[in-house]
Amino acid sequence: xxxxxxxxSSRNQTAALATNKVIRNTYTLLSMTLxxxxxxxxxxxxxxxxxxxxxxxxxxxxxxxxxxxxxRNSSLGLVFVFALTGFMGYTLGPILNAYLAMANGxxxxxxxxxxxxxxxxxxxxxxxxxxKDFSFMGGFLITGILVAFMAGLGAVFFExxxxxxxxxxxxxxxxxxxxxxxxxxxxxxxxxxxxMATVTLYVSxxxxxxxxxxxxxxxNSEE
Length: 223
What we know:
Blueprint: H1 4-46, H2 54-70, H3 75-100, H4 105-130, H5 138-157, H6 161-187, H7 194-222
Helix pairs in contact: 1-3, 1-7, 2-3, 3-4, 3-7, 4-6, 4-7, 5-6, 6-7
């Protein structure tokens, strides 16, 4: 007969291997999507393409996100992941061109990019090494992101720059929390689909970068 302790150890090893595979696949795909997004953003900047506008951006984002979620367990999911991240990269191009046209715009963009990288790598490393469980943040993050999203729409439609800045500050904190939460989910088996994990981390990085860009751009204009 098999020893129960041996069976338990075997199951734990199998679970650990599966978790490590998901983590490895997630960060590999995330690296590829970030590079692809940077490529589409650079192309958009070089061609000086116009921004598609808020409604088309939201429609494209949620439509591609829905398709990615629906096909997350098939090869089509990978196609839609690159479609989504490529589209978001395209929308970022005109925004970067607008900031680069400002005085010290290049410094603002590079600072936001560097800060985004430091925050993401630092939080990811902390979650991976400490192995703390941040699943308790799930409800708070969902509520906070929904509130910030609605407030952001209100800031755009009612032209309230002060509220827009507050929303950007909220998103910086919320995206930092989302990075911790999603990394924790990967470690503890709460997320077993690397495509969805990649999308969550990509969106966190994208929103973190654009929010920092907005805040730093405002501070630069005030100097």
